From TrEMBL:
Any GO molecular function: glycerol-3-phosphate dehydrogenase [NAD(P)+] activity
Residues holding NADPH: 12, 32, 93, 125, 240, 261
GO cellular component term, pick one: cytosol
Main location: cytoplasm
Compartment(s): Cytoplasm
Protein name in the entry: Glycerol-3-phosphate dehydrogenase [NAD(P)+]
Entry EC no(s): 1.1.1.94
Segments forming domain Glycerol-3-phosphate dehydrogenase NAD-dependent C-terminal: 165-300
Pathway listed: Membrane lipid metabolism; glycerophospholipid metabolism
Binding site for substrate: 93, 240-241
The protein's role, per its UniProt record: Catalyzes the reduction of the glycolytic intermediate dihydroxyacetone phosphate (DHAP) to sn-glycerol 3-phosphate (G3P), the key precursor for phospholipid synthesis.
Amino acid sequence: MTGVTILGGGAFGTALAVALAEVHSRVHLWARQMPQGREMPRLPGVILPQNVTVSPEIEVFGPILAALPMSQLEGVLRAHPALAAHPIVACCKGIRPDSGLGPAGVITSVFPESAPALLTGPSFAIDIARGLPTALTLACADPALGAMLQEQLSTPRLRLYLTTDVAGAELGGALKNVIAIACGIAMGAGFGESARAALMTRGFAEMTRFAVAHGALPETLAGLSGLGDLSLTSSSEKSRNFAYGLALGRGETPDSATTTEGIATARACAARARSAGIPLPVTEATAAVLAGEISPNQALTQLLSRPLTQE
Ligand SMILES: NC(=O)C1=CN([C@@H]2O[C@H](COP(=O)(O)OP(=O)(O)OC[C@H]3O[C@@H](n4cnc5c(N)ncnc54)[C@H](O)[C@@H]3O)[C@@H](O)[C@H]2O)C=CC1
Ligand SMILES: O=C(CO)COP(=O)(O)O
């Protein structure tokens, strides 16, 4: 009898529960909102298998997957100190504006003795829940724990690649959301697909520059958790970050009720890069548009009027 516990009954927690129910006898989904019938409100149309239990009380079976918004991770861990005794895999993407910490860093800051892991990469919740083939990165600094989690969390259609580069996986997953917002803005403002390709490519250069300056390996950024997720998120309206930018670019009011992790991350990264002297022009322009300081057209002018340089 094997099991996993998932914290967060949103779209991603629900999708992971459905996928992992295929390979575990028991999956416990800790959620604030209960299912209607066997459907969770954030992922309608997806039926929870019978071996998934949903409850507002945390019950621990095997590793814990934290599929919560980045802003909520620290508070939930602090409220449940008993979780410190179990392996915790963060499934969120972002950087905290106050501390600059990513999800694994948040886990370590709350539970200093833990060896946190991170599950990240290109995957829309609905694709995973439908059983479509997906490949993700599992990052853990402890190779033995990482290998165990890789075995426990892989399924026949959810293929996990292992790395010990936690910083690279954290920053790739966080920064791609900012570039996805930038791409959405560009498409919404009518700048065209060539402009989007330029933003993705120069954005990827920024992601790599920032991450390497924070101890990441460039090859991690070129993998699923960086380039892979950037490709998915910057080119699909299924992405909330891309959709948010698209609305902004069109001059519409974006849906602020969605979990759009790139907003806080843009602010956090732009501020940190500025104080560290790391040039991140796309990220800075995106943060300024998100803050309402400049329009998409002003951001474009700002980017195009930078001195000509080497690629
Ligand atoms: N939806 C997707 O396709 C993917 C999402 N992710 C990441 O997963 C994380 C969660 O995103 P989603 O599940 O999509 O968001 P969501 O907006 O669908 O759901 C968030 C869930 O967290 C719950 N929640 C919020 N605060 C809470 C608290 N204090 N205590 C308990 N539960 C709380 C909400 O009730 C909601 O069910 C994000 O960091 C996101 O970037 C990663 C890959 C794919
Ligand atoms: O991270 C995701 C896909 O890998 C989901 O993207 P959004 O959070 O923009 O919807």
